[in-house]
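Q: Structure for this?
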Amino acid sequence: MTFIDQLQAATRDNASLLCVGLDPDPAKFPAHLKNDASRIHDFCAAIVDATADLVCAFKPQIAYFAAHRAEDQLERLVAHMRRAAPGVPVILDAKRGDIGATAEQYAIEAFERFGADAVTLSPFMGFDSVEPYLRRHGKGAFLLCRTSNPGGDDLQAQRLSSVAGQPLLYEHVARLAQGPWNLNGQLGLVVGATYPAEIARVRELAPTLPLLIPGVGAQGGDATATVRAGLRLQGDAITGPIVVNSSRAILYASAGDDFAAAARQAALKTRDQLHAARIG
Amino acid sequence: MTFIDQLQAATRDNASLLCVGLDPDPAKFPAHLKNDASRIHDFCAAIVDATADLVCAFKPQIAYFAAHRAEDQLERLVAHMRRAAPGVPVILDAKRGDIGATAEQYAIEAFERFGADAVTLSPFMGFDSVEPYLRRHGKGAFLLCRTSNPGGDDLQAQRLSSVAGQPLLYEHVARLAQGPWNLNGQLGLVVGATYPAEIARVRELAPTLPLLIPGVGAQGGDATATVRAGLRLQGDAITGPIVVNSSRAILYASAGDDFAAAARQAALKTRDQLHAARIG
């Protein structure tokens, strides 16, 4: 099964457009785990267990493991996901971006070492920095396109007079990913949730690509507006998939020992909001 | 001492503009180490020992360690560099690019875990994806600006009509790094060696920033043209530093047991070519 197939199946089986982002910060763990970097796996595994039937994907953010020398815990966590949430694809959030031989090493890191089904990438170095990932048939690769952080405008919102139609840089990335770069149908795009009009614009330019949309929850994006702007359906079939990520609002829904139950409640609420927007 | 001070001192003490890039691929190691990922540290340490007095910096590329679960070997390698090459700064080639809280984790990875003096970054997500690194006073951060891989043009060479003067994207990055983004004088730029005219253009826009220039050696960049385009001197003082990287041409100068001696000879030759271009 390809990543896209897995994503469609998990979206359908769990009636969910929600991705839980695993950005584990030991300083925010409940008291019995707090500031203990050796318990990152355990914290995340509890979140996975509590939300496995509510999500279309999990998205571990590698920086939070690397800062704590905890790559081995990430390896174990992905293995745990395979048992606790079979069929739910794993998107490694790494935002790698490098050329040929080095990109090949990062592809080994993401797909072989960590066993991810998809990875996030930066498009700044161009097609040959993306192409090595596409040789892994069936794996997915989400390119940064339009991010909603304060500096997102600095480069992404600049207008390109040297490209036909004078698109903004992020529009150009969306077109490349929908078209010439998407050799085997493996590409998706990362688009922030803060500005639904920009999600809609990316969807217009990339009608069939899966959109990974962070920023719902703690970062303030609106779930309903996000779904309406990004999801495309034909009847019951999803023709333009979305993967709506929430991290902190779920991971840290409670600072107490009930953190996993609270995470489930937060995930359930967001899952249902997203689902209601879909059918509403 | 700041990264810039270390770089200036090592450049002077070793009469060198050469950076040796450590991209260790066990498949290319000599027979007694070949395909043995547990010997990555040993291979690299031998290269460090053989070139310590010939370089202005070392640049380990993290992907080659991560693909082999060898982060611990990278930690030991940096510790070895501190003993074998005291005063030579270490640039971690990681090309990270992420927002706020996540960038902070990557900064911990680079500067605390691996003990690097500088790191390479992608500017695609804008200023707030760079700023967390600048809070580490004295550390350096090289932003991807103009890369000479085939896809380097895809985004970097597009013209921005929405920015005053209608610069190309890479020219815009150079201006931002020389000016408003460079809060504490910590920024540098990555510029490929293949097109000296573009190095000269970046130097024009960023007269004082250190330029990290990969691509001399195996990738075909011309050493003399690179120095003339990038280095800026006032008398004996370097006012526009360059760090000219060579990786494969040095690491794999010989496939035999004489690999370290051959690496030294290759590094010596390139060091001398770069130095001759400086004074020529």
